[in-house]
Amino acid sequence: MTTVLIADDQPLQRFGSRMLLESQDDMTVVGEAANGSEAVRMAAELHPDVVLMDIRMPGLDGIEATRRITAAGDRTRILIVTTFDLDEYAYAGLRAGASGFLVKDAQPEELLSGIRAVATGDAVVAPSLTRRLLDAYVHHLPTDPAVETPAQENPRLASLTDREREILTVIGQGWTNTEIATRLHLAESTVKTHVGRILAKTGSRDRIQAVILAYDTKLVKPS
């Protein structure tokens, strides 16, 4: 059973999400938060598998709430829900530690599959789509001075082997594991092992975080 906390300042949005989730045999809603502060507090108390996180909420917004929840080191994963014209906030949410994002006009089955994916540790957004999003917005986003250093100098990359650095680069370019295996002439199981090591060595929570790291460290530059 996947437990979900809904964080949204719109009562109707929370109600709709709850009705959808509780229609599923494998999901249960453990709580509702009307702002970011409530989301942080309830996540610490309830330890949900997934927080369905709105971004624009009064007081503490969803981005800062995401940062605080993920910084606590719990198993809870964050699925950002945003609107199409606010994708720059989605990017900031991913950088804060979210495992993926969806737009609010997504189909119900997309939301359900997204929650299931995040709960099992996968990224919600396909790598190629992630790259297109970052390409579209990275020019307009403020840089993070904590990570904005040349790739060869960034300490998060220091322990990577040459092969791992190569694979991190193509992950940032949107390649899937199958594409990496085919183009680099590797077994897909070997690729999966490399990806796991890259995530562990760089402290990336999931593949999306690795994509962001590749951009931040200039291993990949927007086209």
Q: Give the class from helix and strand content and strand pairing.
A: alpha/beta
Cα distance, first to last residue?
A: 41 Å
Could you name the ranges where pLDDT drops below 50 across 5 or more consecutive residues?
A: none
Report helical residue fraction: 40-55%
Strand content: 5-15%
Keywords: DNA-binding, Phosphoprotein, Transcription, Transcription regulation
Modified residues (4-aspartylphosphate): 54
Protein name: Response regulator transcription factor
InterPro entries: CheY-like_superfamily, NreC/VraR/RcsB-like_REC, Sig_transdc_resp-reg_C-effctor, Sig_transdc_resp-reg_receiver, Tscrpt_reg_LuxR_C, WalR-like
Show the helix and strand layout.
Blueprint: E1 2-7, H1 11-21, E2 27-33, H2 36-46, E3 50-54, H3 62-71, E4 77-82, H4 87-95, E5 100-103, H5 108-119, H6 127-137, H7 162-172, H8 177-183, H9 188-202, H10 207-216
Parallel strand pairs: 1-2, 1-3, 3-4, 4-5
Helix pairs in contact: 2-3, 3-4, 6-10, 7-9, 7-10, 8-9
Modified residues (4-aspartylphosphate): 54
Keywords: DNA-binding, Phosphoprotein, Transcription, Transcription regulation
InterPro entries: CheY-like_superfamily (IPR011006), NreC/VraR/RcsB-like_REC (IPR058245), Sig_transdc_resp-reg_C-effctor (IPR016032), Sig_transdc_resp-reg_receiver (IPR001789), Tscrpt_reg_LuxR_C (IPR000792), WalR-like (IPR039420)
